[in-house]
Amino acid sequence: MSSTPTPLRGQLHAVHVLGETAGAHVSSLARGLVARGVTVTVCGPSAANGDYGFAGVGARFAPVEIARRATRADAAVVTALRAACAGADVVHAHGLRAGLLASLALGGCSTPLVVTWHSAVLADGARARLLALLERRVSRAADVVLGASSDLVDRARLVGARDARLAPVAVPAPARAPLPPEPAVDTELRRQKTRAEFGAVDRPLLLAVGRLEPHKGYDTLLEAARAWRALEPRPLLVVAGEGLQRAALQRRIDADRLPVRLLGRRDDIPELLAAADAVVLPSRWEARALIAQEALHAGVPLVATAVGGTPELIGEAGELVPYGDAGALAEAVTRLLADPARRAELAAAGRAQAATWPTEDDTVAQVLSIYDELAADHR
C-alpha cells in the first residue's frame, strides 16, 4: 500500500472506511469535502473504487478488502487501516463492520472516530445477539455516531453511544448537469416506449426497486399481486434488482401466474420511474430508501411500509401500510390506481416534500462541522 499523503499545512485530513455499502454516499461526501479543502483518503474494497471512482472526485483510494462478516483476513485489514489512518485528523467509518475494524486500527491513539449507521440490524437468534454486541462495541468506541434515520440514532443511544446525532443521507446529484427539459410530446413518447417494452401500454404499471433479499418484503409483495389479478385492466408489477431470492420468487410467479416481471439489474431507473403509475416499497426496514427519494423527486406516487425512517422521510406525501400485511398493501395500491385525483395529489406532495430534504451541500457541511469540532477537541 502506498504511503498516506501529507496534508497541506493546516489542512484537515479525513480517512473514510467503507465496507460493502454506502459507496455513493462516501463518493458524494468525498467530492464535497475535497472541494472545501479537506484531504480525503477512502479505504475500501477494490470493487468500490471501480464503481464509484473516488480518484475522480479528488480522493486518494487505498484498497482494503472489508468483508461483510468476520474472516481470517481481518487482522491484515486492521494493519492496513492502521497505516492508512496514520496522521489523520479524523476517521469516518460507514457501517458496523467498518466501524469495528476502524476502532481496532485506532486502538491506543487519540484520533477521533465517527461512525455512520446506514442500516438497522436485521437478524434473528444467535446472529442477532452477536450483532447487538457489535453495535454496543462500535457505539462506545466512536466519538460520534451518525444515524441515517431517527430510529438508528435512538438505537445508538440505547446501546451506549456517547454522542449520537441524526445525519440524513442526501441523494447524490447527477454526475452531469441535467439536459434542458424535453417537450411534453417527447416525454410522453419516451414514457410509452418504456411501457411498451413490458406490454403495459394499456394497463397500469407498478415499479419496485431493490435487492432481491428477504428483508425487502418481496414475498408480501407477490402475495399482494395475487389480488391485482382480479382488476381490469390487470396491473403489471416490474421489479428491478438482483439477489439470492430471484429463483424462488420466479418459481412463485410462474406457479401462481402472477402479473409480475423480474427485470434483474437495471441502469435506467429514471426511465422506469417516468413510465410507472406508482412505486411500491414493501421493505421490513429502510432508513432513507433511495427509490423512495427518487420517486418523490420524480412525482411518482409511492406506497411504502411504515418502517424505520420511511415515515419521517415521506411525511404525508405517500401511502403507508404495515410491514408484512399483504392485504393492506394490495388495498392501498388498488385504491390508488382507481383514483387519478389522489395520484395527482401525491405527485405534487412528493415534489414538495423532496424540496425539504437536505441537499448534498447540507450533508457535507454538517459532516465537516463535526470533523472541525472533533479535530479542535483533540489538538
Summarize the structure in words.
The chain has 379 residues and is of the alpha/beta class. The chain folds into 2 domains: 13-170 and 359-377, Glycogen Phosphorylase B (Rossmann fold); 184-354, Rossmann fold (3-Layer(aba) Sandwich), CATH 3.40.50. It contains 15 helices and 13 strands. The strands form 2 sheets. A 7-stranded parallel β-sheet has the order 3-2-1-4-5-6-7, with helices on both faces. Strands 10-9-8-11-12-13 form a 6-stranded parallel β-sheet, with helices on both faces. Helix 7 packs across helix 10 and helix 8 crosses helix 13 (326-337). The longest helix is centred in the C-terminal third of the chain and has 18 residues, at 360-377. The model is unreliable at 1-9 and 174-179 (pLDDT under 50).
Total number of beta strands: 13
Question: Which range best describes the helical content: under 10%, 10-25%, 25-40%, 40-55%, 55-70% or over 70%?
Answer: 40-55%
State the major sheet.
Answer: 7 strands, parallel
Low-confidence blocks of residues: 1-9, 174-179
- Helix-strand makeup class: alpha/beta
Percent of residues in beta strands: 15-25%
CATH class of the largest domain: Alpha Beta
Strand sequence of the main sheet, in spatial order? 3-2-1-4-5-6-7
CATH superfamily heading of the largest domain: Glycogen Phosphorylase B
Name the shape in a single word. Answer: elongated
